């Protein structure tokens, strides 16, 4: 399937009731009601705060694919793209008939509904579910584990979102989408099932390079059996980590949402039509490893105080805060130092002037506001 065809499908089937960063059970439940006539929808468990964890099953094929999103409650881009995918399957049944005849998908759209509601990474017991794969101390972890055992997937899609700090390698290119074929032992052995995951990632990368060249990364594969992906890989199930990252000025993650959708379609189409042996895994190693090279804003060449000689850069990172059921981005000064090895998604040249905040005080680390003042000019840090 060609990229332009997939992009056309996205525009046609984008779920308009889901947008921006704050996605909870309240947002998806009306959609689940609409899907119920076409998709098997079950409550497969309850969260710490007794919120429902939903499971959706579609397809009738022998290739079983388990997909779960919002294990971290504040990582919602992949959830939006899941509903775009479901809309596509239901409304383009003839186009995807062979895919759904070859594959059965089991989807958990929000594994951590409490974290989603509070817009936090952790669950209501302050546990990172992606570090609970061995202890299984949390009800949400137990739900995923029970489904893994009963569904017996051939592929696992571990769906996440990543911060704006990541670059695709040591470059000024943002890692807009990242992947990982997790390790399954301390030696990070390239095992047969890892090769299968790598091959699928290579297919997605080939597709994405046509849209966002040099903006795809992979994560370091250091092994941690407490992580869910590493555990499932360790049990010989090809597992793929998806990370939805930052595209220029796309703080709502709507462009990235489309890119994740394209990744879903290209990978599922490949799985449905291919006997994957892992023999084509080597293209995975052409993808650069993520590095932390970005801040949201860098103010260059700022003079410190009355010194004529001390010039530094100011790094600003946006803090995501849930205010009145909406995510607000609050700029915060993280560092004041020489940042020549870093890039800003937005860069401002102070041209040797001092940088002030409110009350005409020089900005300092931890300063939070939506603007600064340079040479008597008020400058907004977050582009509208």
UniProtKB/TrEMBL annotation:
PROSITE patterns: PEPTIDASE_M14. The keyword Cytoplasm does not apply. Its cofactor is Zn(2+). InterPro entries: Peptidase_M14 (IPR000834). The keyword RNA-binding does not apply. Keywords: Hydrolase, Metalloprotease, Protease, Zinc. Residues 18-247 form the Peptidase M14 domain. Pfam families: Peptidase_M14 (PF00246). PANTHER family: PROTEASE FAMILY M14 CARBOXYPEPTIDASE A,B, SLL0236 PROTEIN. Belongs to the peptidase M14 family. This is M14 family metallopeptidase. The lineage of its organism: Bacteria, Pseudomonadati, Bacteroidota, Flavobacteriia, Flavobacteriales.
